[in-house]
Amino acid sequence: MPPFSFLLRSLSLSLRLSLSFPAVSLDGALVLAVAPLCSCDVCASYLSSSWSSEFPNLCDWYTHLLRSSPTGTIHVHVLRNTITANPVNVEHIVRARFDNYPKGKPFNAILGDLLGRGIFNADGESWRFQRKMASLELGSVSVRAYAFDIVRGEIETRLVPLLASRMGCGNVDLQDVFRRFSFDSICKFSFGLDPGCLQLSLPVSSFALAFDLASRLSAERAAHVSHGVWKAKRLLNVGSERRLRDAIKLVNALAEEVIRQRRRLGSFATRNDLLSRFMGTVDDDVYLRDIVISFLLAGRDTVASALTGFFWLLSRNPEVERLIRGESDLVMGSSAGDVLASFEQMQHMHYLHAAVHESMRLFPPVQFDSKFASADDMLPDGTAVGGGTRVTYHPYAMGRMQRIWGPDCLEFRPERWLQDGVFRPESLYKFPVFQAGPRACLGKEMAVVEMKSVALALVRRFDVRVVGTDQQARFSPGLTATMSGGLPVIVQERDSIYQK
Ligand code: HEM
């Protein structure tokens, strides 16, 4: 077996020279994928990272390239990746030719250690089974009511008291607060377990830390041009792969303990958390663990990311905040102490609904989403796709395309979603923030209700101002959009800014 340092040296040399990697065998397994030879401008810029001298984020560079492409589609040859911001192509990939665009083996490999056979990482029969079971549960009135109660409880007893306690105390990292909020909420919803991350003392939860580390390190696997690098590190159990293994062990141990306890108590028939609901159908506890962990990943960072983008935009657009307050006063009355809207009341707030969609148009939590073509295909815009290559649609770029949203596409304007004051949904292929077609997000309604509940509570109770709104947003690499450096805000009593 070649020594690990040799592997790394030959990889970085191959990268610099932009040559094909030699196929190297480790323990008899072919571990290095062959990166195609290419020295076109896009590939050269990708490999040397020279794009970063002009653009703050990789997604901004891709947006620029996609805008310049007449079809709204580009190739990054060294990644064997076709990237599109063309709604007709999106519909083709996620609906019309759904069977040709599974998540695919490379994605399964990247997230397989963390997610096992869970829905987020499954294709074929296993996916179909979980999808059916999960749709049934998430569609049930009692599960929805359970989710809504969790969110209201978390806002009333933790989020609002925490922010009230930080008034006049300098900067608060709102992104961190939202991550704690959404982790508590999704753990209660999925496991019936309260990690208590948002308690006043902001405790360090070893479960949350391990889960964060595991998802971040899993995502970093995808950033390698060749899977061979992380696979070799995993085989040797060194560096980031060793830390990933330890983090996953901890997450699994906790999940397994909760499952064991629940089986022992035998009380699952009367409970509404997903784990208890799924226990009635699934006997295999490892499979059960995988299913529930996928929900943690799906529902945690996404909601926190969406809320972070929302408050970033709101801080730059105080008029939108004023209109949200005005609408909520009409529906709920004008006492700033009443922060919790009922489900019914929220149905009447079209402007709020529009503002939440508008913020995700500009800051989609899942900035891009990839599939792997099973067989050769032709996209509707004439782009040829080779079997076994990656195809990515890019909601972040799509939200910034004039040809989709018009000349004011970069403006935060909730009104674009309203017709005579009533919310008018857009085509899901223009706005694939929750994906669309057979594999569309199962938590969409829940996520939107969660976002609106938090937005209302904070806007009605506080003045939240982001520190440094003149700067461009910068994201950390990961599965979900995360602002690097967090979202520092100053929290004040409502209207105190205007009273000065
Ligand atoms: C703003 C918040 C959210 C956004 C933007 C979002 C977005 C997405 C996207 C883009 C996908 C497709 C991923 C893929 O298959 O490639 C997805 C799938 C999924 N989401 Fe969400 N999501 C959000 C919140 C949630 C929440 C709160 C839950 C759970 C309670 C959830 C549960 C799921 C599940 C189970 C899937 C997998 C569906 C399948 O593979 O059939 N999501 N979501």
Compact description:
This protein has 500 residues and is an alpha+beta fold. 54% of the residues lie in helices and 9% in strands. The site of protoporphyrin IX containing FE has 22 residues, from helix 6, helix 13, helix 14 and helix 20.
Task: Give a description of the structure.
There is one protein chain. The protein is an alpha+beta fold and 500 residues long. The chain has a single domain, classed as Cytochrome p450. Helices cover 54% and strands 9% of the residues. The chain has 21 helices and 15 strands. The strands form six sheets. It has a four-stranded mixed β-sheet, sandwiched between helices. Strand 10 and strand 11 form a beta hairpin. Helix 8 packs antiparallel against helix 14. The N and C termini lie far apart (71 Å). The N terminus is likely disordered. The site of protoporphyrin IX containing FE has 22 residues, from helix 6, helix 13, helix 14 and helix 20. GO terms for molecular function: heme binding; iron ion binding; monooxygenase activity; oxidoreductase activity, acting on paired donors, with incorporation or reduction of molecular oxygen. This is Cytochrome P450. It comes from Eucalyptus grandis (Flooded gum).
